[in-house]
Amino acid sequence: MEKKYSYIIKGTLILLVPYFVATFFFSLSKKDIPKNVMPLYIPFQVVFYQKWGFFKHTEPFNYRLYYEVSNRKTGAFVARMEVLQDIRKLATREAPFNQRYLLLDVILGRCITEVLNTDPLLLENSQSTSGLKRNGPLRTLENYAAIAAAAYHIDTAGNGCRLIIMQENYNDFTSRNMPPVIKAQPVFEGKYFNFR
Amino acid sequence: MKVWRQFYINLYTNDNRSFYLSVLRVGISLWLIKEMLINWPYLGMIYGSDSFVEVSNNKLFSLARLDVQVLREHYQWLIGMYAILLFFNLLGIGRQFTAILIFLFAEMFFRMNIYTGHGGMYMCRFILLYLSIGNSYRYFILFKRKQPRSPGREQLSVFFTNISAGCIMLHVCIAYFSGAIVKMQSPAWQQGIAVYNIFAGDRFNGTGYNNQLAHYGWLMKGIAWYTIVYEFAFPLFVWVNKMRTIMIIMGILLHTGIYFMMMIYGFQEVFLLTFGLFFTNKEWCSLLRKFRINITPAAV
Fold first, then answer.
1. How many domains does chain B have?
2. Min CA distance, B115 vs chain A (Å)?
3. Is residue B4 one of the residues assigned to a domain?
4. Is B7 among the domain residues?
5. Alpha-carbon gap: A155 to the closest alpha carbon of chain B (Å)
6. Which side of chain A, N or C, has fewer Cβ within a 10 Å radius?
7. Do B46 and A95 lie within an 8 Å CB cutoff?
8. Residue A131 above 60 pLDDT?
9. Is residue B1 a part of any domain in this protein?
10. What residue of B is the nearest CA neighbor of A4?
11. B5 inside domain
12. pLDDT per residue over B157-172, tens digit each?
């Protein structure tokens, strides 16, 4: 074999070793990654983003996304709509031809998780500066309000809205055969905003 | 030492995986076309600038001096170019050049909406990257090479084809193994609670009767342990000839189960597509011969 080709082959093999070592370590949980390689974690994930520990944490509850609509001038209650449960019911009913509902579910679901994992002060800031320091996931949920209102035939003119995220606990594993007890509690309550 | 030497020589002399690598190129191209078609009515929602989804610039876009808002304003053009490239890749037109462009496009679309990315897309991006270095154009192509390569370049082509296949197989193994480590450390997985939480919730209710199945504790524990054992065993035993078919069958069962029970489609389809790579050209030849199908490489 010609020398130049031999160098290419050896060079490629030498490059692949650290690449796969890094791929292995950086696909583990953060706490399992050796501390001395941690500074390389962010640059590696920026370029080769990947995450394989699916369903690492699963919890015995469903999130519910409520939009509470009220009159902007009088503050009178107009309607309350929950969107996530209906989307998921439709996703199950229409499977496997349910791409629209799967997309909506994954977008809203991930935004809810992001909002709940964000510092409440940052969220407060995002809501009060009217777009200056916007929180993407929160704005996405707020933007969806107009689509939800149209779907539920709720008039948006003259009305404002706020979103409430509820955590609806169902029976945990140990009490799985007991009569179903559903406990709901709000985990996030936003400020009123105008429909966009 | 002799074993390593032989392994090294085999890397550039024995073309072992080019048949399935070509199948994978066609398969991944068709999968991406399918993903585009099922998302077609919702592309505006996913990538459009008028969408309710708010996306900010990510670090890679900033490094490449790309503005996500500008890309979202012109998403229809980008989708059009991507569709043409996928069609080219399906037929092997433009070869590695098309493959690398598709990788860049897939990477760009993946980062244009961070919410809709899924495990299938994570793996698909890496498959596209690895396919762009190997020769997946020995089968199922529209135009043959006019002139044969020099012996040295042919050896280099065989080497990169083997490396490309090896990288995909290794990446699949790493994905399983890191998943297994995460699950093994979680008491909720060991006791079946994690699977119960998935089945009793409404997010992954693929059948409508998942909630009823969640009442069977033994079933939840069984599914959890099947997943953990499989994810640990696959990266270790798929390389052992006698165990390989068992591992592949276990994988097919797991992935089809998730597909129908949990409505997670893309991830299962991509992983199932990669399984064929664990069989060599020779094994594929003898299997297809049983169905009276003879495969011959179209290009040298």
1. 1
2. 5
3. no
4. no
5. 18
6. C
7. no
8. no
9. no
10. B152
11. no
12. 999 999 999 999 999 9
**A·B CB contacts under 8 A:** 162
Mean pLDDT of A158-171: 94
Question: Which 3-state string (H, E, C) describes chain B?
Answer: CHHHHHHHHHHHHCCCCHHHHHHHHHHHHHHHHHHHHHHHHHHHHHHCCCCCCCCCCCHHHHHCCCCHHHHHHCHHHHHHHHHHHHHHHHHCCCHHHHHHHHHHHHHHHHHHCCCCCCHHHHHHHHHHHHHCCCCCCCCCCCCCCCCCCCHHHHHHHHHHHHHHHHHHHHHHHHHHHHHHHHHHCCHHHHCCHHHHHHHHCCCCCCCCCHHHHCCCHHHHHHHHHHHHHHHHHHHHHCCCHHHHHHHHHHHHHHHHHHHHHHCCHHHHHHHHHHHHHHCCHHHHHHHHHHCCCCCCCCCC
CB–CB contact B177 A24 (8 Å): yes
Mean pLDDT to the nearest integer, B270-274: 98
| The pair of three-digit structure tokens given for residue B135, joined into one six-digit string | 């020769």
Which among A59, A136, A144 has the least Cβ separation from residue B197?
A59
Q: Using the beta-carbon criterion (under 8 Å), do A143 and B52 form an inter-chain contact?
A: yes
Q: What domain range is B257 assigned to?
A: 13-141+149-290
Please state, for a pLDDT cut of 90, what percent of chain A lies above it: 66
pLDDT for A121 = 75
Query: Residue B300 — very low, low, confident or very high, per pLDDT cuts 50/70/90?
Result: very low
Q: What is the pLDDT of residues B55-95, one digit of tens each?
A: 888 888 988 899 999 999 999 999 999 999 999 999 999 99
Nearest to A88 among B46, B63, B205 (CB): B205
Could you tell me the pTM of the whole model? 0.94
